[in-house]
User: What shape does this take?
Amino acid sequence: MTSLIDVVLLLLIFFMVSTSFVKQSQISISLPEAESASIVEEVPEQIDIMITETGVYLINGRELINSRPETIRNALQKVSGGSNSMPLTISADANARHQDVVTAMDVAGRLGFVQISIATVNDTESE
Assistant: This one.
């Protein structure tokens, strides 16, 4: 038992000595300030369409004013910035109408989105 403790202590000392301690140098800089505070709107990397049980559409977390296909199309064009190469995920409530999901898929398909996926969850209780 004593020899095991000696070996562990020797290994500990070896690792402590062999590690290199890097002292990071800190440079103090003063950053410039902008005259105007204009906000640049970023184009998201992915578009998420969520459909609630009552048929309300949310695109990237923002609720649409109605569920008409024209409204969905305009919101998708605005969020994507005209780029239809972005991945699009449709998340619908389990009790949402099938027609609402098909409407979202149809509008996205007509705009030229090809990377459309439907979000699901695994039901671990049934296994």
Q: What stands out?
A: Residues 2-18 form the longest helix (17 residues). The radius of gyration is 27 Å. The longest strand covers residues 47-51. The beta strands are 47-51, 57-59, 62-63, 88-92, 116-118.
